[in-house]
Design goal:
The protein is of the alpha/beta class. It contains ten helices and nine strands. The chain has two domains: 51-80, no CATH class; 84-258, 3-Layer(aba) Sandwich (Aspartate Aminotransferase, domain 2), CATH 3.40.640. Helix content is 35%, strand content 15%. The longest helix has 15 residues, at 51-65. The protein starts with 6 loop residues before the first helix and ends with a strand. The relative contact order is 0.14.
């Protein structure tokens, strides 16, 4: 029996992978003049070989048409967001009318919380995972303060309960059941960025709604990485970026979902 952790087994799996040919479609930097395997797509995806030509097309259109480029040709700048709705919807499992490409992830998170986080004296709290991505925590703290509440008491962080630093579904369920009556919003990741743990969005949304809380998700490490079904999950909103697993490059606009 082949050792599943052996190099031989890994090479065999790679050779049989139907996605193997896609590797040649990306530019992989060399390390000290040697070929390397790239494991940093969680931070910045590789450049597609086709990206340079597409960027040059836009630069040529800009130089030749200037302001008219907003309204002329097939790739009209004014309707860029409409042109990517259907492919984005397929990636995150949504209806085209539910998604838009715009802004950055944190800006979109603020916009979603402006609309969906409606704290009251009885329900001021936001429930999130402990060890969340720092920019998420900063945004959530600032929203709580903006509404006149205190993150020290109204930001409820669920601690991982497994030895490997992951969360059991029971721990999430207990936290929502315990604090749900005070929670205006449950904001959870699709994938925890440090451990790689994927979560059941449908179940978390169900638990949140059962307690009267809004369910929102940060899919920065999930979109383009794992199958998603946002519409069917009954999530109220979600945000994500495109420069990681969708290889859109640094500074690329982010994505947003509203059910």
């Amino acid at each position: 029996m082949t050792d599943p952790l052996s190099r031989t087994h890994a090479i065999a799996l790679d050779a049989a992978d139907p996605l193997r040919p896609l590797r040649s479609e990306f530019l992989i930097p060399k390390h000290k003049h040697n070929e390397q395997v790239y494991f940093c797509g969680n931070s910045l995806g590789l450049q597609p070989r086709s990206a340079r030509a597409h960027v040059l097309q836009v630069l040529d259109k800009w130089s030749n048409e200037a302001v008219e480029g907003h309204f002329t040709g097939q790739a009209q700048w004014m309707t860029y967001h409409e042109q990517v709705r259907e492919p984005l919807a397929r990636v995150v499992g949504a209806q085209p009318s539910e998604v838009v490409a715009m802004n950055s992830l944190t800006v979109n998170l603020h916009l979603m919380m402006v609309s969906f986080y409606r704290p009251t004296r009885e329900r001021p709290a936001i429930i999130m995972e402990a060890g969340a991505f720092p920019s998420d925590r900063y945004a959530i703290e600032s929203q709580i303060r903006f509404h006149g509440f205190d993150p020290a008491t109204d930001l409820i962080e669920v601690q991982p309960d497994e030895a490997d630093g992951t969360f059991s579904m029971q721990a999430i369920e207990r936290a929502i059941a315990t604090h749900g009556s005070r929670a205006a919003l449950v904001l959870w990741p699709g994938i925890q960025y440090r451990t790689g743990q994927a979560f059941d969005l449908r179940e978390i949304a169900r638990l949140s709604h059962a307690e009267g809380a809004v369910a929102g998700f940060d899919l920065a490490h999930a979109a383009g990485n794992v199958p998603l079904a946002l519409h069917d999950s009954q999530a109220d909103f979600a945000v994500w970026c495109h420069y990681k697993y969708m290889n859109a490059g640094p500074g690329a606009v982010a994505g947003c979902f509203v059910h």
